[in-house]
Write a structure and sequence with these properties.
Number of strands: 5
Mean pLDDT: 87
Helix content: 10-25%
Number of domains: 1
Distance between the termini: 54 Å
Strand order of the largest sheet: 1-2-3-5-4
Radius of gyration: 22 Å
Largest sheet: 5 strands, mixed, barrel
Length: 107
């Protein structure tokens, strides 16, 4: 009986470790490039600029502004452009056309 209990415990520990170590990461929505900080002076300006079309120059192409840029840990001291994988959503709480980054990973 004692041998059976030890064997069952070993099997349970094995499956527990196997289950917790084999988690697959969900794919990201988009590849993007953070091109720099927006230095324009207007009501809806400021923050980091992000481009989903492969453009690496600031203020070029169809770029968006990131609402929660302080949460990303990216500062003006970082070297731009920064290539990332990203999940995002449109910020509907304000009148400005901004996005909120929900998950990102530097490439």
């Amino acid at each position: 009986m004692k041998k059976l209990t030890r064997w069952m415990l070993a099997v349970l520990i094995f499956f527990f470790l196997l289950h917790t170590s084999c988690k697959k990461e969900e794919p990201y929505m988009s590849n993007a490039i953070i091109t720099g900080s927006d230095a324009r002076m207007c009501i809806c300006c400021g923050g980091l600029m992000i481009n989903f079309d492969g453009e690496t120059k600031p203020y070029t192409g169809d770029f968006k502004l990131i609402e929660n840029s302080a949460d990303l840990g990216i500062t003006d001291n970082d070297k731009f452009p920064i290539y990332i994988k990203v999940d995002w959503k449109v910020d509907t709480t304000k009148a400005c056309d901004r996005i909120i980054i929900t998950r990102f990973k530097r490439l």
